[in-house]
Amino acid sequence: MFIQIKDLNKQYLNKENLPVDVLKDIDLDIGKGEFVSILGPSGCGKSTLLSMVAGLVQATSGEIIVDNKKVTKPGKDRGMVFQQAAIFPWMNVLENVMFPLRKEMSKKEAKLRVKEHLKMVQLSNYASHYPHELSGGMQQRVAIARALAMDPGVLLMDEPFGALDEQTRTRLHDQLEQIWIETKKTILFVTHSISESIKLSDRIIVMGTRPGTVLADIHVDLPRPRGEHKEGMLKLEERIMGLLKKEIDKVVDEELAYETSN
Amino acid sequence: MKPAIKRILFFVIVIGLWQLGSKAGLWSEILLPSPVSVFEALVTGIQDKTLIYDLIASFKRLIVGLAIALAIGTSLGILLAKSKTADDTIGSLVLAFQSVPSIVWLPLAIMWFGLGESAIIFVVILGGTFVMTLNVRVGIKNVSPLYIKAARTMGSSGLDLFIKVILPASVPYLVTGSRLAWAFAWRALMAGELLSTGPGLGYTLRYASDFGNMSLVIGVMVIIGVIGAVVDQLIFQRIEKSVIRRWGLDS
């Protein structure tokens, strides 16, 4: 398996210095080239899980192995796209996408690679623009191009379209699907949108909350493009909704209890 | 009406009333000379080149002092942002120094360096350093963790991360720090020169006052004010505005 997550646990200490389980006994195997969504309500630790694969957050116990190497720190073999574009405002688009390449290849080579990736996200004409001159959707495409330009084994995406408007999001879904088909990258995609996960992924890992655990591992075998199979998508959506309902109720109950106790 | 036109109109009216008041003898020419006398004093000062020499001398001290202040301020700010121990110890000292007007250092500076160039430059340096330090410190501490996380996933760490990401990300604070450092240094310079030897704008101001030449006193005050406002608005505020826009901090 390309990515192996074994007995992964993550705890943090709360204000009273008591350990709280964020993630409990996560076991996952992900094959090369798979598009996998991690779906769950807020607070289920899905973003933490992704950050741990990226090497930004350390596990309390257990291990993550990517391409036969144990993850201990961040590396260029795992590209990450965040909810906010996180491209650097003091660099133009070209310089931003070149950032991860500047040390490992000549400038000429890097420029060529950047141009290729800007074309992939349809931003060839914006190489010399600065981030503040771009829309949110364009900024996020730059971030995707930047992550892909390092040619990582896996692309980690943390609710990458969560901050965009509906129309832009739909367009970027199609673009991402196209990019995935062209590059055959393994993609781990964190989202709280059921329809987004059904539209894009081969597999959906449904997570429950407090502590974060894997509730279900669903294979999506609807043919692509999925927009033409509305009925199948709807059926799956209902099924996942049923799985998540209990979890969402749990969160709401806790929040209500918290409010009334204050 | 455009703000610029409003502003010009405002100054014309103020100077006009001032001139009218002087003409009508509402106050004595010795206490408040008329704008025309002030203008004449300025023209004389420029023609006999004293004011030109003063300007050159003052700016020389300012540039040397401000450059050293910015260098020390930036280094000290980085140290405070990066080391908790330094922040807990030196940090509190910097805050204390920042609340002391730098001119009160002049007596000590004169003892240490003699009554001359070095003493004034020392006061200018103290005027600009600490405000720069505090801004650099806050700037580095406020760098969005998102930028740092993103850079780390792209293989950047340590010194590379600091130079390529953290420092450029805090540029808006560096610019604000520099603007405030300039303002403090400019005030420190004038105070220092007022109590020191010439040439220099502050020195000429005191010299004119000793000889009862109030027109020149006001003339020099006008020069000091105009330079302060022009440098602040035409240089620093413009840079600040464009940096804030580019760094996406205006929304």
TrEMBL record, chain A:
UniProt keyword terms in alphabetical order: ATP-binding, Nucleotide-binding, Transport
A GO molecular-function annotation: ABC-type quaternary ammonium compound transporting activity
Reactions mediated catalytically: a quaternary ammonium(out) + ATP + H2O = a quaternary ammonium(in) + ADP + phosphate + H(+)
Pfam families: ABC_tran
Superkingdom of origin organism: Bacteria
InterPro entries: AAA+_ATPase, ABC_transporter-like_ATP-bd, ABC_transporter-like_CS, ABC_transporter_ATP-bind, P-loop_NTPase
Enzyme Commission numbers on file: 7.6.2.9
Segments passing through the bilayer: none
ABC transporter domain mapped to chain residues: 3-234
Oligomeric form and interacting partners: The complex is composed of two ATP-binding proteins (OpuCA), two transmembrane proteins (OpuCB and OpuCD) and a solute-binding protein (OpuCC).
Protein name (record): Carnitine transport ATP-binding protein OpuCA
Automatic annotation (TrEMBL), chain B:
Family: Belongs to the binding-protein-dependent transport system permease family.
Keyword Transmembrane: yes
Keywords: Cell membrane, Membrane, Transmembrane, Transmembrane helix, Transport
Pfam family, one: BPD_transp_1
Residue intervals of the ABC transmembrane type-1 domain: 55-235
InterPro entries: MetI-like, MetI-like_sf
Biological process annotations from GO: transmembrane transport
Record field: transmembrane: 62-81, 93-113, 119-140, 161-185, 214-236
Organism: Exobacillus caeni
Gene3D superfamilies on file: MetI-like
Localization terms from the record: Cell membrane
A GO cellular-component term linked to this record: plasma membrane
Membrane topology, from the record: Multi-pass membrane protein
Superkingdom of this protein's organism: Bacteria
Main location: membrane
Name of the protein described by the UniProt record: ABC transporter permease
